[in-house]
């Protein structure tokens, strides 16, 4: 193909078939199309063999495709190569692929509706829905880390440790000094204030705590240029056991289960993900110096995928597949709280790294309807995310006869360094023709807003509930409800 300065394309397009010796004789004829400065899409010149009739089908489409994205262009090239490769293949899958090429060949390049239809066919053909798994493992790794950080926040306070400090402890609670909750020692006068007074015996398990936390979320994803729009929902639950090494240091381990569901908005199909996580964490806190939190998390997940590949809406067909993934994440954060009047004001910085791997997998068609030949074998993928969070929060301690209540308002600025996802290599099962597809880049900067509260009850019990949402995110709208309960051994 040759393009001159004024946009004239030279195309070799004509083929013929000799039915007597079954030799394919390619003859050339120059055809010229003046398309201005736009692009000409050429899907192929494919000859298929039809017994007895010995007919040749010329599958050439010359369509003005101004505005087509790179995935659509790659899909057109892959489809063209595939139809050429299976021209003499009489299998059902190959014939279906050739039918897709013929469907495209019947389109009129001068009809705007046909151009839109071509985009729809190429979007259906391209396996860009697979990027939902890449997004999923980044999300679910963050869920577990968030659950554990909620646990750490519920522990953080440096209390007085002797009865001689009881008077100062009373004013300490009422003034709202320091951070959100407490490293509550069983021998602490602070806890006696929270539980209504009375000495607490120090048992061998008094430094051990057990915590349950969870979250529910829902939202939607704008696939933008390269991916499908989708509705998303998730839930996760975590059990954490912690040990208070000193009044300033707590360490613990956690186990979590999670589920994430993606339902595509404009096409059939979606992704269901389930998994579990193991987490280790530690936190150091000094009222006069601030705090440092460290969280290590490893998780494995299983994913079931379906995507619509049918060319006829009245006869749907799905490409179905399953795969597994694993992910490691590391988070470190530091911050400090300051008392102003009856309020605690805090600032913090957190860095998080997630590195995951998705196993390769092969799709299978759910039935033999039109489009069933468009199934792929997809290579393994890498999923990486590196985020920085800068946050501020305000809280206030409110003492009551039943519990100590602590409302919290939090706002965060979050930036993503790994905005570009790795390209996905996809090989057509029928023809073994491969190409690569790209996903929508992650938003590099957005804010999170949270509002909630915590409560400390008698006998070392505490609980929290929290609402959080994204603000100014280019691609994701999501809302979370987070909650937790802590029990302390006597």
Task: Briefly say what this structure is.
With 490 residues, the protein is an alpha+beta fold. Helices cover 18% and strands 47% of the residues.
Q: What does this protein structure show overall?
A:
With 490 residues, this protein is α+β, with helices and mostly antiparallel strands. The protein folds into two domains: 70-125, no CATH class; 129-158 and 205-487, Lipocalin (Beta Barrel). It contains six helices and 25 strands. The chain has helices at 70-85, 92-105, 112-125, 131-155, 166-175, 189-195, and strands spanning 2-3, 8-12, 15-18, 23-26, 30-34, 40-42, 62-64, 208-221, 230-244, 249-264, 269-286, 290-308, 318-340, 343-358, 361-362, 364-365, 376-378, 381-395, 398-399, 404-416, 424-428, 434-437, 445-456, 462-471, 476-488. Strands 8-9-10-11-12-13-14-18-20-23-24-25 form a twelve-stranded antiparallel β-barrel. The longest helix is centred in the first third of the chain and has 25 residues, at 131-155. It is elongated and about 80 Å long. It starts with a strand and ends with a strand. The model is unreliable at 1-66 and 157-201 (pLDDT under 50).
At CATH level 2, the architecture of the largest domain is Beta Barrel
Q: For the CA atoms, what is the radius of gyration? A: 30 Å
Query: DSSP strand (E) fraction?
Result: over 45%
The strand line-up of the biggest sheet is: 8-9-10-11-12-13-14-18-20-23-24-25
Separation, N- and C-terminal Cα atoms? 81 Å
Biggest sheet, open or closed, and with what strands and sense?
12 strands, antiparallel, barrel
Q: What is the count of DSSP helices, taking H or I runs of 4+ residues? A: 6
Poorly predicted runs are 1-66, 157-201
In percent, how helical is the residue content?
10-25%
Please give the number of β-strands: 25
Shape: elongated
SS content category: alpha+beta
The number of distinct structural domains comes to 2
CATH topology of the largest domain: Lipocalin
Averaged pLDDT: 77
State the CATH superfamily name of the largest domain: Autotransporter beta-domain
CATH class of the largest domain: Mainly Beta
